[in-house]
């Protein structure tokens, strides 16, 4: 073995930087995940350069052939899919008097352009709160203010203040609104998505594969596409901010950077700022808060335990930096209301926390709604009681995830700077963080207060990060999430768009969709199409069917996330390998189907793995100093997917 | 610029011809194995020899990475159909998009064919949407109408004659019609799969290569815009044409002739493709199976080698079979119409022909296609404005004047007047006469070519008009280089050589027809663009596919002809596709159309340009062209700059600018191909093609055996 390792290390030194990492280009298997979208190799059709010097390509003979931007196909697919969905009707199209979310956003643009910020949240002669009063946090309001001139440039009548523009839906205005949503989504989501493959460099299946899996999970997520670009909302912005925060925290948690100090602090503070911005954009994303708080507090504690006065000082500086970032974002977003004094601030708060709107809206796939078939909770208790019960239940659902994040951070720190090695493999914190964020969101979705069906997107956004490790679960959950939205989409004339986007998602993920879990959903679709479920006495039977299946799915997802987190932080060590693989969110067990992993050698601690692995030790060239080449293609064949058909060029 | 590049390259090419670099070329062509028998074994042996010679780690990691150990492998068909599924899902999202009057036209044809007797289809004048596609398409409309009837789509409204009213636009009717276009695209996918399988005979290729290659054709933005938004059935017609080319490559000329005839009977604007197909089929028929070397033409009866009487008879029979079957297939769909016409077959044929080739529609379509005549017309307008300004300061006086008032015009007019005043008397008379002609043309009351109408008989004031016959002659002359190159290839390498050049030749002839044709629509660029997409996708795939059974031999650079096709396609995909954008005028589709065209260009074209090996100057030119296109799109397209600056004035100027600027790109593409055919390097290619041919034939033989 040493000989082989020495050879590998030498080969790596000789080759590094010149030779494209073969394993990164390696698609895994035929018919698997996304032969096209995921696997389009970025240097796929480059000529192979066999010409002699001075030949047909002399003027362009750099050592590496010029390449298109990485991820450019992903960007184009991202934009094309969303633009095509934008051709379909939006919520409340042509349905006075209230129209729908599209009209709400148009109204906010017009309102924020016409009124000074202080009056945005308070009722006044020019601000009828009964007609789509602004009930999103200030950052959304500022974004509306920024978008207003863009829409006005396309069609000034759409931004006419007051009643004149209510329900205004000219093609030009509609196209401009759609373009604003598309631009916001692209600007928020694409940069972190394109940055992710750099951070996924050490993934067992190759950073390129992992990056494409993550990209497909985000870009082709049917629910997100349909809600943002069909129904019309701006969920892409918080999703992108969350992705950015997760990336930043992974950089900040990097052992070498943590030792270096400043870079880690800056990264963590930036992540905290991004997440705060997400919450300041859409308050319901506050469900992402607990794991983030746990992560940052645990890192403070880890620094403090680092030893001596240096540790305490570092911890204090870190805490001040992170808290400062959070406060700075909040103050910047809320400045006009802060300086306006107590009344304006109270008005803002009252708009943002609507207690009076009930336990849930429509037929949402959560526990309260599904249990209402048996127990009508809303008749049993007052709203205030229900609010308390729902908050307590959500907190209880979030608690194990918060604890797991703390344990993961503690386990990844290791025993001092030169002490014992960390207990968890390096990708653990990122994976546990993503899973915990998704788990908290799922818990809040299942038993929260005033839940909308669209809140399922808050589960899907962090879940997408697990796509490289568990593509089957993520793809199936995404499809099922869109299924729970179907009654809403059908009502708004988006059934065709739903079919198209689900088809795109199905083609992209192909084999990775878990047919067994989707069979009930397909059966319900078939039954509604055939008109079987229209029970005369119960008009909501069909909607309840959708909600019930969705609720079971979200519950199962919650349990899976719980199990995955428990396995990742070492609370539970399942004996059976199939269970271990099924619950592997880090990627150490080779993923859910046991391929491509490298956890069987027993020395996987310290190897880059997991969704954000590779940032570890902060080196862009992987881990060349460790004696084994991770993810560089020189790894012995057993590291890369055994049991596959191979065509080896060995003589 | 091309000349410079050629001069620089020539020594390298000659050196390569003299001393083939070791390890890159196979030592000598393997003796052609007896057909079928033992060919697999021969290939394996050859592969083994090459394997031993191949370096352990090749210097071509991009290619190696695909075929190296354990990567996903797909057949061409699997890749194509996977992309087809993805493309169909995206097309499903385009269902509610804008539909042009072509939608009404095709719906009307369903009703027409379903509710009137066959004899009246081409003579019915109850609607302005008269049937003007060839008979096979009419029959296909009838079949689609039968499906609509059977499923009672939209209560049968699709097959009821509407009496000139708007076509039914209920969701189910639209979904049915859109769905029929998507389903018809299966023919395109099948044709592409067959052509790829025939051209690059591999049982399995790397998934990335298979999918990228298929996507280059099936996600073609022109087809996406024209078929799935604007509404037409080009995918069906071009798919049949590609199937014909595939059959030609497979060495089945009779099948190719029949399929080509079917394609022309589906859409007669594909007829330019008959020229290269005819050249190839003629070569195949004359060559028979008796060619020297590994020419595997077959499909007709067997025939021995040599020049015996039997062989000559066999060749004659083969050629006869090709010609007769093709002619039969061309005529067969017409027979029901000729037989059932009350006025007799000749009158019926004349009626159909009058519908198919309406001569009274003028040289230019209402929106100018980006071809020579658009450039000439624009130049004519500019010249008119100039001479009128020069002669009398009458700018803006006439009803059709193009140049408005303002300080700029006044200054230009003054300068021009001064310039004319300095001319000698005999020369000064010319602008005066020209100005008089311009004034006469402008004040004659005839519709102007810049009015956006069809049927302008004499669009030019200063030049003599172009007749349809003249335009057709120009197109044939313009296509001659491509046809000559094809014939030369056939003479040198037999039918397989010409078959491999066929997609590129079809595209070149399509470009010539587009550039010189009479009353060409901007959509006609698809006849050039789709075959070019196929040809370049094949080149790109070949450039990364390692050859040999196990993929051990590194790929070689594309031939000069293939490189020229790559560069030409870059120009077409920029200029020609961009010229399709005004087809979708509304703001709703703006983002979709721009993302489709620009996204395809951004993802695909840089690689293709590198593969095409464009020189530094032409690279700068293509980049500048693309940038200018963006600027012009901001002014004349979705950016709305023109309306912002001028309001409703000069409504035709944006279209004129788009046409003329796109014509520059189309001209560059056309010129690239013509240059290559007339003066390009051919020797290198011949050698290349021969070797590839040998490989192809062997691999096909082994495949057939394994299957």
Q: Output the strand order for the largest sheet of chain B.
A: 1-2
Q: Kindly report the average pLDDT value of chain A.
A: 77
Strand coverage percent of chain B? under 5%
Largest sheet of chain A: none
Q: What does the radius of gyration of chain A come to?
A: 26 Å
Strand content of chain A: under 5%
N/C terminus separation of chain B:
49 Å
Please report the number of helical segments of chain B.
Answer: 26
Greatest interface by residues involved:
A-B, 80 and 86 residues
Counting helices, strands and paired strands, the structural category of chain B is: mainly alpha
Given helix and strand content, the structural type of chain A is mainly alpha
Q: Say how many strands of chain A there are.
A: 0
Beta-strand segment tally of chain B: 2
- Mean of residue pLDDT values of chain B: 79
Describe the largest sheet of chain B: 2 strands, antiparallel
Q: Unreliable segments of chain A (pLDDT under 50, ≥5 consecutive)?
A: 6-69, 591-651
What string gives the helices and strands of chain B in order?
HHHEHHHHEHHHHHHHHHHHHHHHHHHH
Helix content of chain B: 55-70%
What is the quaternary state of this protein? heterodimer
| String of helices and strands of chain A | HHHHHHHHHHHHHHHHHHHHHHHHH
Count of alpha and pi helical runs of chain A: 25
């Amino acid at each position: 073995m040493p000989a082989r390792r020495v050879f590998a290390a030498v080969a790596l030194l000789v080759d590094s930087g010149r030779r494209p990492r073969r394993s990164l280009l390696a698609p895994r298997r035929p018919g698997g995940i996304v032969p096209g979208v995921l696997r389009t190799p970025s240097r796929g059709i480059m000529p192979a350069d066999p010409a002699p010097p001075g030949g047909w390509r002399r003027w362009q003979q750099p050592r590496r052939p010029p390449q298109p931007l990485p991820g450019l196909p992903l960007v184009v697919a991202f934009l094309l899919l969303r633009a095509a969905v934008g051709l379909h009707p939006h919520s409340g199209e042509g349905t006075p008097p209230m129209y729908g979310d599209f009209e709400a956003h148009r109204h906010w643009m017009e309102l924020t352009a016409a009124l000074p910020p202080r009056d945005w949240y308070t009722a006044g002669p020019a601000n009828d709160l009964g007609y789509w009063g602004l009930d999103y946090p200030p950052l959304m309001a500022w974004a509306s203010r920024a978008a207003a001139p863009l829409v006005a440039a396309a069609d000034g009548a759409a931004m006419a203040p007051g009643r004149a523009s209510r329900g205004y839906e000219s093609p030009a205005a509609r196209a401009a609104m759609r373009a604003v949503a598309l631009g916001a989504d692209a600007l928020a989501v694409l940069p972190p998505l394109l940055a992710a493959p750099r951070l996924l460099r050490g993934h067992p299946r190759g950073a390129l594969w992992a990056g494409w899996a993550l990209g497909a999970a985000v870009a082709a997520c049917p629910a997100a596409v349909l809600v943002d670009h069909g129904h019309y909302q701006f969920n892409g912005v918080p999703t992108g901010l969350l992705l950015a925060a997760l990336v930043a925290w992974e950089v900040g948690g990097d052992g070498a950077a943590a030792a270096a100090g400043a870079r880690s602090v800056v990264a963590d503070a930036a992540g905290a700022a991004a997440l705060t911005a997400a919450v300041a954009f859409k308050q319901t994303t506050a469900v992402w808060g607990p794991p983030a708080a746990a992560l940052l507090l645990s890192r403070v504690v880890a620094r403090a335990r680092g030893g001596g006065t240096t540790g305490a000082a570092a911890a204090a500086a870190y805490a001040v930096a992170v808290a400062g970032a959070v406060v700075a974002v909040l103050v910047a977003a809320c400045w006009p209301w802060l300086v306006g004094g107590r009344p304006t601030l109270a008005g803002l708060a009252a708009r943002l926390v609507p207690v009076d709107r009930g336990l849930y809206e429509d037929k949402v796939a959560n526990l309260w709604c599904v249990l209402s078939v048996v127990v009508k909770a809303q008749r049993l208790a007052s709203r205030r009681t229900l609010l308390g019960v729902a908050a307590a239940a959500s907190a209880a659902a979030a608690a194990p995830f918060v604890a797991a994040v703390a344990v993961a951070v503690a386990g990844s720190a290791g025993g001092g700077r030169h002490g014992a090695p960390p207990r968890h493999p390096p990708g653990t914190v990122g994976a546990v963080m993503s899973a915990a964020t998704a788990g908290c969101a799922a818990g809040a979705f299942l038993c929260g207060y005033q839940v909308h069906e669209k809140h399922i997107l808050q589960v899907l956004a962090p879940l997408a990060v697990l796509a490289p490790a568990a593509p089957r679960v993520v793809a199936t959950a995404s499809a099922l999430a869109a299924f729970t939205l179907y009654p809403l989409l059908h009502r708004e004339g988006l059934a065709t768009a739903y079919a198209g986007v689900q088809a795109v998602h199905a083609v992209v993920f192909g084999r990775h969709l878990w047919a067994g879990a989707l069979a009930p959903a397909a059966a319900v679709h078939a039954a509604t199409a055939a008109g079987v479920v229209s029970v005369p006495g119960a008009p909501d039977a069909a909607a309840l069917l959708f909600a019930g299946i969705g609720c079971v799915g979200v519950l199962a997802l919650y349990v899976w996330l719980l199990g995955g987190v428990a396995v990742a932080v070492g609370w539970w060590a399942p004996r059976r390998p199939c269970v271990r693989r099924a619950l592997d969110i880090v990627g150490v067990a080779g993923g859910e189907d046991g391929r491509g992993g490298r956890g069987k050698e027993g020395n996987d601690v310290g190897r880059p793995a997991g969704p954000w692995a590779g940032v570890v030790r902060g080196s862009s060239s992987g881990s060349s100093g460790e004696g084994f080449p991770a993810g560089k293609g020189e790894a012995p064949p057993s590291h890369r997917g055994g049991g596959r058909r191979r065509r080896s060029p060995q003589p | 610029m091309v000349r410079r590049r050629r001069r620089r390259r020539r020594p390298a090419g000659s050196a390569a011809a003299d001393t083939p670099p070791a390890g890159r070329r196979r030592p000598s062509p393997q003796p052609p194995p007896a057909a079928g028998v033992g060919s697999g074994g021969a290939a394996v042996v050859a592969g083994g020899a090459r394997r031993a010679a191949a370096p352990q780690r090749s210097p071509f990691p991009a290619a190696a990475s695909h075929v190296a150990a354990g990567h996903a492998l797909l057949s061409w068909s699997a890749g194509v159909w996977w992309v087809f599924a993805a493309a169909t899902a995206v097309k499903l999202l385009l269902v509610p998009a804008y539909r042009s009057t072509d939608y009404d036209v095709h719906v009307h044809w369903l009703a027409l064919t379903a509710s009137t007797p066959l004899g009246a289809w081409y003579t019915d004048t109850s609607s302005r949407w008269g049937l003007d596609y060839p008979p096979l398409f009419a029959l296909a409309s009838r079949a689609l109408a039968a499906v609509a009837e059977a499923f009672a789509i939209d209560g049968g409204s699709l097959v009821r004659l509407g009496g000139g009213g708007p076509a039914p636009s209920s969701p189910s009717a639209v979904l049915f019609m859109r769905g029929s276009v998507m389903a018809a695209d299966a023919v395109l996918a099948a044709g592409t799969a067959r052509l790829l399988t025939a051209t690059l005979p591999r049982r399995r290729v790397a998934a990335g290569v298979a999918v990228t290659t298929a996507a280059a054709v099936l996600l073609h933005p022109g087809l996406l815009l024209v078929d799935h938004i604007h509404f037409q059935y080009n995918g069906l017609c071009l798919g049949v044409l590609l199937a014909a080319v595939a059959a030609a490559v497979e060495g089945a000329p009779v099948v190719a002739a029949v399929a080509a005839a079917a394609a022309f009977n589906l859409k007669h604007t594909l007829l330019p493709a008959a020229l290269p197909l005819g050249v190839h089929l003629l070569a195949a028929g004359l060559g028979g199976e008796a060619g020297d070397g590994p020419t595997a033409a077959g499909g007709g009866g067997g025939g021995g080698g040599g020049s015996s009487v039997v062989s000559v008879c066999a060749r004659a029979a083969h050629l006869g079979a090709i010609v007769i079957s093709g002619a039969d297939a061309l005529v067969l769909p017409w027979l029901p119409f000729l037989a059932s016409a009350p006025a007799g077959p000749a009158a019926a044929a004349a009626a159909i022909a009058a519908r198919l080739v309406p001569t009274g529609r003028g040289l230019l379509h209402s929106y100018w296609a980006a071809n020579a005549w658009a450039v000439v017309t624009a130049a004519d307008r500019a010249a008119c404005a100039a001479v009128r300004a020069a002669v009398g300061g009458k700018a803006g006086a006439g009803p059709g004047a193009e140049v408005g008032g303002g300080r700029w015009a006044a200054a230009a007019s003054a300068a021009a007047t001064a310039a004319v005043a300095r001319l000698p008397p005999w020369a000064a008379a010319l602008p005066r006469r020209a100005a008089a002609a311009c004034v006469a043309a402008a004040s004659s009351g005839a519709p102007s070519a810049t009015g956006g109408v069809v049927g302008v008989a004499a669009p030019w004031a200063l030049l003599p008009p172009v007749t349809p016959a003249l335009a057709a002659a120009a197109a044939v002359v313009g296509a001659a280089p491509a046809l000559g190159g094809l014939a030369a290839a056939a003479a040198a390498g037999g039918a397989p050589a010409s078959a491999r050049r066929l997609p590129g030749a079809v595209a070149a002839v399509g470009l010539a027809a587009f550039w010189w044709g009479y009353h060409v629509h901007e959509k006609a660029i698809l006849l050039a663009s789709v075959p070019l997409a196929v040809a370049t996708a094949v080149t790109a795939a070949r450039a990364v596919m390692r050859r040999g059974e196990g993929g051990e031999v590194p790929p070689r650079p594309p031939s000069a002809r293939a490189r020229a096709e790559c560069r030409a396609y870059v120009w077409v995909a920029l200029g020609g596709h961009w010229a399709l954008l005004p087809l979708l005028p509304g703001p709703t589709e703006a983002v979709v159309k721009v993302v489709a065209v620009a996204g395809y260009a951004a993802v695909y074209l840089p690689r293709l340009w590198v593969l095409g090996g464009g020189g530094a100057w032409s690279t700068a030119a293509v980049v500048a062209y693309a940038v200018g296109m963006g600027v012009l799109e901001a002014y004349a397209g979705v950016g709305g700059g023109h309306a912002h600056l001028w309001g409703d004035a000069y409504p035709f100027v944006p279209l004129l600018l788009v046409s003329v600027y796109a014509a520059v790109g189309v001209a560059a593409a056309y010129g690239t191909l013509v240059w290559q055919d007339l003066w390009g390097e051919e020797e290198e290619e011949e050698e290349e093609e021969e070797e590839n041919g040998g490989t192809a034939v062997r691999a096909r033989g082994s495949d057939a055996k394994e299957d």
